[in-house]
Amino acid sequence: MVDRQVTPASKLGDHADVLSNAARLFREKGFEKTSLKEIAEACNMLPGSLYYRYSAKETLLVELMRRGVDLVTAEVGSAYASSDDPVERLRLCINAHLRALLVDSDAVYVLLFEWRALGPEAREDIIELRDQYESLWAGILETMIEQGVIRKNVDGRLLRLIGLGALNWVATWFDPNGTQSLDAIGDLIWQIAIDGVISKDVQV
């Protein structure tokens, strides 16, 4: 397992600042092209202070990815719990995933697009965490199939893979200054899902 860096309680503010700036730089420049020196400069820290806390960039990347998984899991879980209507739940969960990816934190973006930069041991840990998040979606969709909300002949695993792939790809083209809001895009994806897989017996 990958060792997790322990930060003293008095340094938690600095710790959050380091993670935030690292996530932003990894997203803007890519993991490979970002140096620890650049992250230290963005945090107004001496490079030596950052090197003392994070002896390698990968340690930072793993911590960011753990944060990303925790964030998106909490967002989607909260959205799911906020409604009793299964079709509305799906809409809320889709929009929660998009917000976590594109609004709330750069860490989720880094999780999705920089995991190949990890070494074998760290990659195994992060893939396990990613699979735990995807199992949340698997449960949501399988429950809808069991309830007859999604048609019985729909492959839940394939639906999950295609659906999450479509949601994640929004991060590569979404323009916050464009004509469509993130919620509007999420609602369109939801509408496509309704038209394609929701049972005709279900009132929307």
Describe this structure in words.
- GO terms for molecular function: DNA-binding transcription factor activity; transcription cis-regulatory region binding.
- The model is unreliable at 1-13 (pLDDT under 50).
- This protein has 2 domains: 10-54, Orthogonal Bundle (Arc Repressor Mutant, subunit A), CATH 1.10.10; 57-194, Tetracycline Repressor, domain 2 (Orthogonal Bundle), CATH 1.10.357.10.
- The protein has helices at 12-29, 36-42, 47-53, 57-81, 86-104, 106-113, 120-146, 156-169, 182-197.
- By secondary structure, the chain is mostly helical.
- It is elongated.
- The longest helix is centred in the middle third of the chain and has 27 residues, at 120-146.
- The protein contains 9 helices and no strands.
Features:
204 residues; Tetracycline Repressor, domain 2; 69% helix; disordered N terminus; HTH-type_TetR-like_transc_reg; transcription; transcription cis-regulatory region binding
